[in-house]
Design a protein that fits this description.
This protein is of the alpha/beta class and about 775 residues long. It has a domain of about 325 residues. It has 12 helices and 44 strands. Helix 4 packs antiparallel against helix 10, helix 5 runs parallel beside helix 7 and helix 8 runs antiparallel to helix 9. The longest helix has 24 residues. The two termini are about 45 Å apart.
């Protein structure tokens, strides 16, 4: 197994384990050798010094665990249909799948490329071997299904995400990150108090860390009195959670080069005060700002695998704490409140309705609430201050409300300033240069936030995990599973849930990022709020009220503006310096996985539902049921500018409608896959069926059923399997396959298209050549 560690982290771990100090007697770099090197295998597991039994008053000191990898094998996860590769498909032209590859390279630099989508040595601007897209996507989906079925689903899901979140992992070498914790002796008396003592004694060398009280007999007696009624198992679980915060601190020290710590602190600051979300710049990268320059210069210097190890340490401890506390009886003990150099520890094991104020949560890094219908205000489960390495909040049970003071993004009176204000952002599972984890064990919960929340990772890892209940999530931007130089996970295991976000959310991977929204089961609704009356939404109440400047290219014919949603499984890159001497920022991996077989609904405006944009990979998976999809433009299942996408629908009678031209295609050296396992499906509007447009490759595959294609001829008369606008000497394919029988209805004027037929369509548009540009249609 490959080990990931550094002398920097190892040295600090051993120094602290053998003695205590204070933040005032050493600078940020004092504990790091000047000649520190990465990828050095440490001796032992980083925690051997704690293996012996501690006396009753001996502190349990956090130590550094060991990171490694667990290889996966995705080969054969998806087999191409024989109809596509056989004599009626590619064989009709004398082609094989090896003939379908992009060899063109653009004269532009690509930063943070996701090379595992491609297997070619010609440069980072290439996209090759399109059949690897469904293989990788199906592998991802199956590995996640296995992860959710285990005893520790949250940690297993997060570990599986890391296999697909490393932009430098070559295809065929997927590997989960692993984490082996240090050895602690959690037996004996006062285990929780001793863990608190250990964290209190651990110096925090991050700038502006809090000054904590000194340990003395009075403080010890107070803590012992507060926790004496806690059962031994509860004490052990909470002690392990406290120790994990210290472990996350060691990993943050590994993640950030000490010499550049001031730069990263300033970048953290700019996320707040330079409004980096820049809602009108979703389509392009922000330009001209010092943050962007620093991200390009310093982004590759961050060791994200160390943040991943920190996240695994925290989620494993938090899952164990939830398991223990879920069966624990309420305890009539006062709230435990202790400030440490790494943040405040708040534990309340009474079964009562609690209102957590923004003031008491402002510097909290561990918050545990056993029960009651609670109200949470402010920032929690978020590393919203740079000195924070990890912040975790656990609400075990109850119908809870999270940030109800946030303006309702669906309210007609809500303004843009209210919907995206910084005051109600950076909360509810936000990892900003750290790890933020929010866990809710059950109940009907309501979550509201503005930005960077609900599973948002930016130079870190953010997690929101809700175990059960019919829940509602509303957000402005950058969350519900959003990763940007890191990972964001939003995991709801069960219940009829409703997700709403204006832009950038519900499974989005931005540059060097991986975002996942995973829903286990239930009848769920996913909404990307929109402008105007198209596409068809559940009711007129979901209009955009924020008066934001729309992308002019996405207005309706009547002038109604439309907006970039960037939601529901999107890999999103930045193209702001396209065609100049600058650089593209390659997108990451974004996924929405709905494993249930319920009736799900997907709504968005533009750019959504399984989309890859500028080298990004977007995946949308729905496990079955009679589902509904509504978009205005560019979705579902479409890619642009060297992106790749995959939309996987297992079965069910689905209803898909795209108001304006798109849905199911690849554009501009992109690869688009739409794969439906079966059911009696209806497609309408201006949906495209295997249309490869402007140097693209597109594959539309229907698994069976009595399907209806494009019942609205007044809007469009699409072809089925065609190349539209080619590229000289480049093999391009538009493929349409309806397989598995059934009586299908084709409302089209294209000659030869019909039920139980084969057809081959000539390319159309500019720069086409029938020798290189092929259209295939097969109905079986």
């Amino acid at each position: 197994m490959k080990l990931r560690a550094t002398f920097a982290g190892l040295t600090l771990g051993l120094a602290v384990a053998c003695g205590s100090g204070s933040a005032s007697d050493a600078g940020p770099d004092a504990d790091v050798p000047a000649d520190a090197e990465a990828d050095v295998e440490p001796e032992g597991d980083g925690g051997d010094v704690e293996a012996e039994t501690n006396p009753a008053d001996e502190p349990l000191r956090p130590a550094q665990g060991t990171a490694g990898v667990d290889p996966l094998d995705c080969t054969g996860a998806y087999e191409l249909p024989v109809e596509l590769t056989g004599p009626d498909g590619l064989g009709h032209f004398g082609w094989t799948v090896d003939d379908l590859r992009f060899s063109v390279a653009w004269d532009v630099r690509v930063r943070f490329p996701t090379d595992w989508i491609s297997r070619d040595d010609g440069g980072s601007s290439l996209r090759t071997h399109p059949w690897l897209v469904p293989e990788a996507g199906r592998c991802y989906q199956r590995e996640m299904a296995t992860a959710t079925a285990g005893d520790n689903p949250l940690t297993a899901v997060l570990a599986t995400m890391t296999a697909f979140g490393d932009p430098w992992t070559a295809y065929g070498e997927f590997a989960r990150d692993t984490y082996t914790p240090p050895s602690y002796d959690l037996t004996g008396e006062n285990v929780l108090v001793r863990a608190l003592h250990g964290l209190l004694d651990l110096p925090n060398l991050m700038p502006e860390a809090p000054v904590a009280p000194a340990w003395d007999a009075t403080l010890r007696d107070q803590l012992v009195s507060s926790t004496s009624a806690y059962p031994a198992e509860v004490q052990r679980a909470l002690a392990r959670l406290v120790l994990a915060v210290g472990e996350a601190y060691f990993q943050k020290r590994v993640a950030l080069p000490p010499a550049d710590l001031a730069v990263y602190q300033e970048m953290h600051h700019r996320f707040w005060y330079q409004n980096y979300a820049r809602l009108n710049d979703t389509y392009v990268s922000p330009t001209g700002g010092t943050f962007e320059a620093d991200a390009l210069d310093y982004g590759e210097g961050v060791d994200l695998t160390a943040f991943y190890a920190a996240a695994l340490a925290v989620t494993a401890a938090a899952e164990e704490a939830l398991r223990v506390l879920s069966t624990a009886a309420p305890i009539d003990a006062p709230r435990l409140d202790l400030l440490t150099p790494h943040g405040r520890i708040l534990i309340d094991l009474r079964d009562q309705d609690t209102e957590w104020t923004a003031e008491e949560l402002a510097d909290a890094v561990v918050v545990v609430d056993l029960g009651g219908n609670d109200i949470w205000h402010g920032r929690y489960a978020a590393t919203h201050k740079f000195w924070m390495s990890a912040a975790v909040a656990i609400d075990v049970a109850g119908d809870d409300r999270y940030n109800p003071e946030t303006a309702d993004i669906e309210g007609s009176a809500t303004t843009a300033r209210q919907a995206f204000d910084v005051v109600n952002g950076f909360t509810q599972g936000c990892g900003l240069f750290g790890v933020g984890v929010l866990i809710d064990g059950g109940g009907r919960d309501d979550y509201r936030a503005t930005e960077y929340a609900q599973g948002s990772g930016a130079f870190g890892v953010g997690v929101l995990y809700d175990v059960s209940g019919a829940d509602s999530y509303r957000l402005g931007t950058a969350g519900q599973g959003s990763g940007y130089f890191g990972m964001g996970l939003h995991f709801d295991r069960a219940g009829d849930d409703r997700y709403g976000v204006y832009t950038v959310g519900q499974g989005v991977g931005r540059p060097k990022g991986h975002g996942l929204l995973l829903d286990g089961q239930g009848n769920d609704t996913y909404i990307g709020y929109y402008a105007g009356n198209d596409p068809e939404f559940p009711d007129p109440g979901y209009s955009n009220y924020f008066s934001l400047t729309p992308g002019t290219g996405y207005s309706a014919p009547d002038g109604t503006p439309h907006y970039m949603s960037v939601v529901q499984g999107v890999g999103w890159g930045f193209r702001h310096e396209w065609g100049t001497s600058g650089a593209l920022w390659a997108g990451g991996f974004g996924a929405l996985l709905d494993f249930g077989t319920g009736t799900d609904e997907h709504y968005a405006d533009c750019m959504a539902m399984g989309q890859g944009f500028v080298y990004g990979f977007g995946l949308l998976y729905d496990g079955g049921g009679d589902d509904r999809y509504r978009t205005f433009w560019w979705g579902p299942g479409a890619s642009a500018h060297m992106g790749v996408n995959l939309l996987l629908e297992e079965d069910g009678d689905d209803d898909v409608h795209v108001t304006a031209l798109s849905g199911g295609y690849g554009f501009d050296c992109s690869v688009g896959w739409w794969i439906d396992g079966g059911g009696n499906d209806t497609y309408g509007g201006q949906f495209n069926y295997g249309r490869a447009y402007n140097y693209g490759l597109t594959f539309f595959i229907e698994g069976g059923g009595d399907d209806v294609y494009n019942a609205d001829l007044a809007q469009a008369s699409p072809a089925f399997g065609i190349v539209d606008t080619g590229f000289p000497n480049e093999n391009l394919l538009g493929a349409f396959l309806d397989l598995g029988g059934g009586t299908d209805t084709y409302n089209t004027t294209t000659a030869g298209v019909g039920n139980d037929a084969n057809w081959y369509l000539e390319p159309v548009g500019a720069d086409v050549n029938p020798l290189y540009h092929k259209g295939i249609g097969i109905d079986r």
